[in-house]
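Lab notebook: predicted structure, single chain.

Context: the supervisor wants predicted structures on file for every construct in the current expression panel, including those that have not yet been purified. This is the next one on the list. No modifications to the sequence; it matches the entry in the shared construct table.
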Amino acid sequence: MPNTETHQQTADLALPSVIKGVLRAKIFTVALALVALGASYWPASKLGSEFMPTLNEGTLFYMPTTLPGISVTKAAELLQTQNKIIKSFPEVDSVFGKAGRANSATDPAPTEMIETIVNLKPKEQWREGVTVDSLIAEMDRSLQFPGVSNAWTMPIKARIDMLSTGIRTPVGVKVFGPDLREIERLGREIEKALRTLPETSSAFSERVIGGYYLEITPDRQRLARYGLMVQDVQDTIAMALGAESITTAWRAANAMP
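Prediction complete. Output recorded below exactly as produced.
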């Protein structure tokens, strides 16, 4: 505490002298400020769009995306294959991935969207000369599947990017318009153009239309012949395809459908 007071007193005594000196040499002071401003131009121009360097979280976030319409069985098979390849790297401690959405209303991810958490070992256990960037590049080369677009980031950074921009990757292009078909056409053209750039590791345009659907049209005349209603058919189809809760069983204070 006494040192703080001494420093404050010294600053209070020196401040008037500094102000008087600056006022006497106005031109020199302004010229010195302009020189300092000009000298900072070159390093400032090299900073890019982000001043903060990439934060190494010690964990990688692998988000591959495939085309819509992939089955649950194929998505699970693809997920298991990717996990095995990632786990084969000696720098990886554990791998956990999911395909589609979790049991949460805030995570409306489709089945074709896979999210994999890759926990890395301490840096002392890595191979000599391996860095985070070189490890990501090596994994990306090993995870090339037809129809799958890879994206690499880190968990915290990915959530911040998605919350702030709605895009899963650090760099993205948004296309707005009233016509969904035109938006998809432009998105595919942008995807093709970006893939030709040497700086692009992967590019994927989300499909806003299309998909696989099963249409079931009831034959009302045959239903009437058996005394059935359309609602009876719809209930049967709903039970066969998606199941339905018949009743609720209570065990103590827990409700189980």
